[in-house]
Amino acid sequence: YMARKLWSWHTCAWYVGVLGAALALLPFAIPITVLGYAVVWIYTWTHDPRARKNFVKVLPVDPRRVFRCGQALWAGMLDGLGGPTAALVWAFVAAKLSRSTRAQDTAVRDIQYGPLAKHRLDLFVPLSTATGAVVVIFPGYRWSRTKRARMYRPMAQTLCGDGLFVVLPRVGSQGSPADALEDFHVAVQWVVANAANFGADAARVHVMGCGAGAHLCAMYSLAAPLRTWYAQADRMARGAQLLASAEADAALRRMVKRIRHPQRVAGLVLVSGVYDVVAQRRYETDRCIEHLTAAARAFATGEEEAWSPALAVRALRRRSAVLPPELFPRSVLLIHGRLDSTFELAQSQRMFRELCAVGVPDVQMKIYANLRRPWPSRC
What we know:
Mean pLDDT: 84
Strand order of the largest sheet: 1-2-4-3-5-6-7-8
Oligomer: single chain
Low-confidence stretches: 1-6
Distance between the termini: 67 Å
Order of helices and strands: HHHHEEEHEHEHHHEHHHEHE
Number of helices: 13
Number of strands: 8
């Protein structure tokens, strides 16, 4: 009887304490809730393509969904502030404002590299002893375009100071990832064809990308082995299928056909990329942001597998009796922050395992335990 009475007293005290805390926090909870809904609704209005047709129907109402969506948006903001975004902006502003510490600008700007007016690039030529190696940077975290490529100029100048030739092309427009990938291919072709003219080695062309740029660089490096596989498979059985989904395989064929005469690059530097779009879309759905991300706007439903380089490498490995290693880059460096919440570390880990399994000669991976997104020029 006494134990039951004591238990009841403790229970009542606990409930009274919880109720008192709830009443004390109520004045703060209401404005925080309103602010959370406002942020999520505004972001949905500006980033969800469905909002153009019916804005009211796409607004999330369920508190659990709003909480998870707000949590993902907050984590994405921290990824940007804790990664290269803030560093890029700071370096760009510092380069504009500072004159005493500004590095000498060695860029030749607005070189035409293709037939279209948008095909322009900046070439950074090292003043010190050049190594002969070239780094072609796919700037930006967007799949369709590189609107703010100029923000990467301080990073390009830093790499140039280490004796590297750095090429910063402007690719894409308002089109699809395939358009951006095709423009990037034209830029790499120009670099290979003109490397000797500016003192570089055409056999030492590397490509580097961050986020979406890392994904497209990985896709570009697979253009040669994919074209080879499809050509060999079609000789034996016309319409041979590499991927499990017929729709995704058709999309992959269309992408590969657009990359005519792909160049085999010497190496890849992939920073915080996404290499399994199928898994990335599942991850975004779990976080209730499946309609708000750049991947949702870039990839059509059913074609995610076609744009997953890790899945393409696995399919090539499983369906190829002999796949010459000369078709792949000689070296690959993957860089990822363990705290990255936009593109999980598992993305780079899976790509690392697939590249090792397919026989790429030199595959390395750097994981930064206390960073969200590493700053490429300091890795």
